[in-house]
Amino acid sequence: MTDPESPSERVLLLVDDEINIVKALKRSLRRDGYQILTANSGAEGLELLGRQRVGVIVSDQRMPHMTGAEFLSEVKVLYPDTMRIMLSGYTDLESVTNAINEGAIYKFLTKPWEDDLLRDNIRIAFEHYEMAFDNRRLTAELQSANEELQQFNRELERQVKEKTREIIRNVNLLQVSQEILEHLPVAVVGIDEQGMIAVSNHESDKMLLGPSVGGLVGLQASKVMPSEVMNWVEQCFGGVLPDNNTARILTLGGVETTVSVRAMGYSSGARGVIVVLIQV
What we know:
It comes from Methylotuvimicrobium alcaliphilum (strain DSM 19304 / NCIMB 14124 / VKM B-2133 / 20Z). The chain is of the alpha/beta class. The protein is built from 8 helices and 10 strands. The strands form 2 sheets. A 5-stranded parallel beta sheet has the order 2-1-3-4-5, sandwiched between helices. It has a 5-stranded antiparallel beta sheet with strand order 7-6-10-9-8. The longest helix has about 70 residues. The radius of gyration is 45 Å and the shape is rod-shaped.
């Protein structure tokens, strides 16, 4: 049988070969709202347990073919969660004690029984049964949550590794791009929206700074760029974009220089201007 999500009701099984005893037990327990099942032998009780989930069993000891201790020992193996109570006379104490020592019996009550004592013990047995059921359910939920968390962590680890590889690829590409930029035989300067030089290569540093120590990056373009070039740069930022296929020849430092100014930001969010200077 598959476990339900929770016990929908308290199912009690009474096992005794004496029909009058079973009827008397049912009369005593009917007021407690249990679903009461009955069996007149251990074999009949085992057959019933194979079809119906039972929370608590109350069994007589003296029954033909299979004693109560033998029956409850079998129940312990097949349905260990079921709470097992035995009713017996004092003459059966030795066999009952053995069953208790083997863990087959949760509680032993003597015949004739006291109704209130019997009802209290059955109620407490159901509470133990339901508490154990809830503990198993919570344990299963916790295990499921842990498995989901492990799966999430594995997926997160995979994504982190993939992102790390992507970052490494991008860094390598950036280093290659920087290497290419540095070795270009022309001066390249990138100016951001604040007019600061954000990118420059070795050729531009040499052309615009000469033998000065340091580079152009971080300087205001207006301090190192000729005014003619800055006017063109400001036109780009102002939306008056020059024809990107057109270059101007200016005299910079006494040398004729071809100057191209091109706006950035068409394919990315990085707005700025690229200035390319080629000495003729």
